[in-house]
Amino acid sequence: MANRAVADWSSDSGGLEPIARATLQEQVYQQLRNRIMTGFFQPGQPLSTRSVAEAAGVSVMPVRDALRRLEVENALVVGNNRTLQVPILDVDTLQEISAMRIALEGLAVERAMPAINTDDVAVLRNLCGVMNDSILSGDIDKYLEANWAFHNRIYERSSSEIMLSVIESLWLRMGPYFRLTAKDKNHLDNAMKIHHDIVEAMRTGDCAAARSAVVADIEAAAGDLSQWLAQQAS
Amino acid sequence: MANRAVADWSSDSGGLEPIARATLQEQVYQQLRNRIMTGFFQPGQPLSTRSVAEAAGVSVMPVRDALRRLEVENALVVGNNRTLQVPILDVDTLQEISAMRIALEGLAVERAMPAINTDDVAVLRNLCGVMNDSILSGDIDKYLEANWAFHNRIYERSSSEIMLSVIESLWLRMGPYFRLTAKDKNHLDNAMKIHHDIVEAMRTGDCAAARSAVVADIEAAAGDLSQWLAQQAS
DNA sequence: TGACTCCAAGTGTGATCACACATATCACCC
DNA sequence: GGGTGATATGTGTGATCACACTTGGAGTCA
């Protein structure tokens, strides 16, 4: 009587996968967010509710929620006629975001260090390899994705949800421009060297070295982008 | 022909005040935000769209937008049955938020220092007086308001919009608990002493002293709240 | 030719209705 | 009496319609 087929359902391993219920709003949000993060949209590009709704094949309601969510995260800003658009980065804002990144990501690394184990180091080293391959094959999308996965892996070890969400929003704000620096060979070489420094600091458990390496990574990106922006303005 | 009455409208000083068009969603958002910041709502209190809509006398649509906005800011969190509720602070989250506050508000003070002038110092000194009066009269609402105005005045001088919005969201997250520490005489005395230190550092332009005073303020609040939470748990 | 008027398209905002889901209550049957 | 199923209530989600506002350009008149 006890060994009915139903009994298996309650076992932890033998049941069905938990059904991931993603609302339409959530799906639209994730798609837009991903495209912003990877620089799919041009800076300044307007995103209206109706246009996005038509492109996604849904009503304006989920789109409205998704866009507002992105607006609060500073991933989108209000344009001229109240239409939301991808933010255009100026040098001052770049400096502000970079300063915040240094403060928060430096803090996140310090908090994460005690929780970093050998598995993490292996994953980070593997992601370094993926980035290297992406550079050789010229796959910018893959590089950007691996780069975020690399940093995210570290920060999520700090077990700080709020801090992680803020850091993500800062990356989101810089997303449309990351792709630009990812085309510069010198920047990529330098970035890969820094990434290896980070992994090495993680392996040896050197907290100060890890922090300074992360800071160096952020400053390098800020410097290259600042240079690009200045060049663009002239 | 040029000096028609219409000409005055285009002048910068002689026109009408720009009409502040606040949407319903914006009004609901501001009201809820203010009440969260000043600890009007109890931690854990659920806020459903329909209940808020009925209380505010509007449809569920503006309320939905306002609640989602607050959710993204971490000012509200999802409860059991997907209903949003005022977040309950645990010691770990308190430490996380305080660490972020130290990193970001310390940075904001440093960036603000060069822009601080004698007017700012006068305003800050005045706000200290307001806080003092509020303590004597026992008006906690007025004290909390003046306290936020004091810090906000400093941070907004850093001319860093994004940083300011993040700092605000952190204050919002701690809002429901600020009121608790504002009942403790020892905490208030210590806070007022620190506030005077901040003003003094602003007056003399001592950047390091200003930063350390702000950090001391945050650490004092974190310490007192942590103590209160531990006492509550037992 | 120039300035002005008017209209159409596009935008966000808000209300209302309908639906799926979760929970609690209670009658019901074994 | 205790488990079982139906129902009522409250919840978020989404679609559809209506409205106010902005903007652009075509058309018109001086």
Molecular structure report:
- The structure is a homodimer of 234-residue chains.
- Chain A has helices at residues 7-10, 24-37, 49-56, 60-72, 91-112, 118-137, 140-155, 161-181, 185-204, 207-233, and strands at residues 46-47, 77-78, 84-85.
- The first copy, chain A, is mainly α and 234 residues long.
- Chain A has two domains: 24-85, Winged helix-like DNA-binding domain superfamily/Winged helix DNA-binding domain (Arc Repressor Mutant, subunit A); 91-233, Up-down Bundle (Four Helix Bundle (Hemerythrin (Met), subunit A)), CATH 1.20.120.530.
- Chain A is globular, with a radius of gyration of 21 Å.
- The termini of chain A are far apart.
- The first copy, chain A, binds a DNA duplex (30 and 30 nucleotides) through residues 21, 23-25, 48-51, 58-62, 64-65, 80-83.
Descriptive key words:
homodimer, 234 residues, mainly alpha, Arc Repressor Mutant, subunit A, Four Helix Bundle (Hemerythrin (Met), subunit A), 2 domains, three-stranded antiparallel beta sheet, 10 helices, 71% helix, globular, disordered N terminus, DNA-binding
